[in-house]
């Protein structure tokens, strides 16, 4: 029994050694033990492979056509031009750090009031993205604009040349005083115009002295707005100044819903009324008819049911 078990074990060891020797022979010839299906090992053994060529080595022995000491090459390494190279946004990071350094350096200089500071047209966000060609967010660029606005408030007689040169990189090549609103006027027919917006709604109004008639898109106020609140909002500028029966209104509205259109009419009528009677501006401002409401609908987020509502959490 023992002799038979020894012979069987010796036979297994011999077979395994033969397999290992064949595998080593394949590896020494440059072949792997794995072969694709449908291709025999005999075919792989007879196939000739092309020699592998490596990329040419970089030659650091010369710089600008001049030889460099080899002992120096062993101690030096390639260093990026800026420490912000590995940040992903090196141009933006360098610009932000330089602006912050300037602010720390000159923050003790006398400043003027924001209304008295020189008017400057800064580059828009899209223009800045095209300049740096980096994935910068609008909020990040706004940080640079805030620092620039603070530096722009330095007294003009004490403005350092270093700050002036730094701000030139972010200025637009336009004159900010040229971008002024066209003055409104009453035409030869006694008609004044006004434009108002709210959310995605736009309202254009023509105002003329009359008996208090209001037409919106060729319809009466009742036909256009079914809600009483919307009808009151549309003519709130006339109501707040007791001018409901002194002017006729002809308006065109588009976009959005009834509430947005009614509140856009409020601003448009107020602007047209100010052209007729500029002294009503304090009363209209107290009534909240002069300033546009900038609020818009907040967008829906991924994973939320609405803008902020989250799905109901279930434990199991």
From TrEMBL:
Gene3D superfamilies named in the record: 3.30.230.10
GO biological process, alphabetically ordered: translation
Sample GO molecular function, one term: RNA binding
Keyword Ribonucleoprotein: yes
GO cellular component: mitochondrial small ribosomal subunit
Any single Pfam family the record assigns to this protein: Ribosomal_S9
Alphabetical UniProt keywords: Ribonucleoprotein, Ribosomal protein
Alphabetical list of InterPro entries matching this protein: Ribosomal_Su5_D2-typ_SF (IPR020568), Ribosomal_uS9 (IPR000754), Ribosomal_uS9_bac/plastid (IPR023035), Ribosomal_uS9_CS (IPR020574), Ribsml_uS5_D2-typ_fold_subgr (IPR014721)
Domain of life: Eukaryota
Family note: Belongs to the universal ribosomal protein uS9 family.
NCBIfam families (UniProt xref): PRK00132.1
Protein name according to UniProt: Small ribosomal subunit protein uS9m
